[in-house]
Amino acid sequence: MPGDGQGPAGLETSVRSLLDDGEALGLRLLAGAGGLDRPLTVAAVARPAREMGRDVQAPPGAVVLLGPEDLAWLRVRSEDEQRAVLESRLAPPPPAVIVCRGIYPPDSLLAVAERLGIPLFITRRPTGEVEHALTERLRRWLCPTERVHGVLVQVHNLGVLLLGASGIGKSETALELVLRGHRLVADDVVLLQRAGPALLGEGPELFQHHLEIRGLGVLHAADLFGHAAVLEKTAVHLVIELVGADEAIGVDRTGLVEPTWECLGVRLPLVRLPVRPGRNLALLIEVAARNQILKRRGIHSARRFAERLESRLREQEPDEG
Question: What's the pLDDT score for residue 256?
Fold first, then answer.
């Protein structure tokens, strides 16, 4: 379902949501409590240059993370210089600042955070770990999401979303693709999330990397084929709809018609594959993925053939003169 721009348990998405979810991030508030209601508006995290003195500004609205290098650079400066650098780097004020690895910040940072009303947190977690966990939470809270019935696989490094009626063979096709060396992301339920111009897909945590195969039951792809056979999430680049014989009549046979599938305002190329006995769907999906890669490089086989055919027909037209 579409995202509602709210944090956990229906809370307004503000810095207070980080504190309420503090156990996951290991956060403790040091200063700037008056700014806990600052809104979180973008799913972005900023890490200053390794030297705070470099003229690098954080993206507007991004939560700022400070690591050991940043604090070490500050501590060898005078307190006046520290304040000047901090006021420059924290303008306009970010929604929050997080100091990582449990290194207690200098008094200048505490004073600037309190004066500007910027919540200042400390955590014992490494900077990279905090960046990853925080980015995931901000995306979950702020980015629109939608749940679709389908299967998501990565084929030739392209995220391919398989759609179709229940029982048409999506899971069996995904299983065959995994056996051919490709990777499973989600089966049956796919969570799609808008991230800028891209659409990201993953499976619900409870069902992640499970496949339901009629006659065999629920299988775990990583247990069967190893962790190289699964992927946590991927950008979606291509949508393939498996259609029955009654729907195959309207399927384009030339490749010149290029339908699209839209979700959360993102349009993706759509291929409709008829399902018939004896058709190797996994092979056809591999070819569709390769063809999409060529199209992204500007190579369009169907258009090139149509141009050659049209040119040949023009050559064979009788000369009216």
Answer: 80
Q: Which CATH superfamily is domain 144-304 in?
A: P-loop containing nucleotide triphosphate hydrolases (3.40.50.300)
Question: Above 50 in pLDDT, residue 7?
Answer: no
Read off the tokens for 270: 């759509």
Catalytic position from the list 54, 132, 147, 149 = 149
Please confirm, yes or no, whether 80 is among the known catalytic residues. no
Q: Which fold has domain 8-141?
A: 3.40.1390
| 188 flagged as catalytic | yes
Kindly provide the b/e burial profile for residues 229-238, where b requires at least 16 CB atoms within 10 angstroms of the residue's own CB.
Answer: bbbebbebbb
> Considering the entire predicted model, what is its pTM?
0.64
What single string gives the DSSP state of each residue in 67-88? -HHHHHHHHTS-HHHHHHHHHH
Q: Is 253 a catalytic residue?
A: yes
CA 95 to chain centre: 23
